[in-house]
């Protein structure tokens, strides 16, 4: 692999700011890595930098930019991975990043495409997985290990039985909320190329709501203006559309059920055991067990919970916790240099 200018710039950015940034480049299928770096996951030009609405790192993009679907300048990967319903699929962090240490949700979306190697991701996206809070706790833990994804090195989900056979782009995303109180949520995004097989009973359409990227997230969304620096112990405002029927939700808005993986019920009798879902549970499982399904907190609510910008330390609080060590960044730079020889 050649060291590119943009990669070097990303490394220098890491060294100078020493933040815990990362990207995803390795595919995990049922917890085993398949292929190498970027065999199935699209390479992009954003290095380890986050995407942000506001004060994005130099050279990065906004969630409102055309490349938000698969990250800046993403190009087709050489291979498409074949998967089936029930497979656990993960997008693992790249070199020297070994555990997400940003508080926030992980999500997976799919977009049906005719050719997963060339499609740009401008079509409809359906959310197949959402990972929220796995450990019920305190306002302090909402800033760290209350989140299911805390310290995990990949964003993962499960292939639903409800989606038609065919090729898809699979978009893995983690959203860091540590700066969200200031409109600076950090989006880490990569796309894998998959082909779903064996879902002959799934019909020809994908159930549930869809969205588009860019467009799916807006700067004023409660989900990405949520403050983890106040007294909240729940996150009742997951970003984007609901998880589709047959998709999975890990944890919950307040962590009450622990680290639990639930499948969103299918309405209208698709499920093979003939059980039919009832009531609102089926529509909003991520909210149903939570006492916090009250209206979403808004950015302007922050001062009223005692967390004004001044009281929580101003600029320091928005910084990435769990700093990416300077030493590790230097090692990364050295490795990249060696590979460029
Ligand atoms: Cu960060």
TrEMBL record:
Organism: Corynascus novoguineensis
Gene Ontology cellular component list: extracellular region
Domain Auxiliary Activity family 9 catalytic, chain residue ranges per copy: 21-230
Compartment(s) where it occurs, according to its Swiss-Prot or TrEMBL record: Secreted
Keyword Signal tagged: yes
UniProtKB keywords: Carbohydrate metabolism, Cellulose degradation, Copper, Disulfide bond, Hydrolase, Metal-binding, Monooxygenase, Oxidoreductase, Polysaccharide degradation, Secreted, Signal
Domain of life: Eukaryota
Pfam families: AA9 (PF03443)
The reaction(s) this protein catalyses: [(1->4)-beta-D-glucosyl]n+m + reduced acceptor + O2 = 4-dehydro-beta-D-glucosyl-[(1->4)-beta-D-glucosyl]n-1 + [(1->4)-beta-D-glucosyl]m + acceptor + H2O
A GO biological process held by the record: cellulose catabolic process
Cofactor dependence: Cu(2+)
Region (Disordered): 237-323
Entry's EC annotation: 1.14.99.56
Family indicated by similarity: Belongs to the polysaccharide monooxygenase AA9 family.
Biased composition (Low complexity): 268-293
Protein name: lytic cellulose monooxygenase (C4-dehydrogenating)
GO molecular function, one term: monooxygenase activity
CDD domains, alphabetized: LPMO_AA9
Signal peptide feature range: 1-20
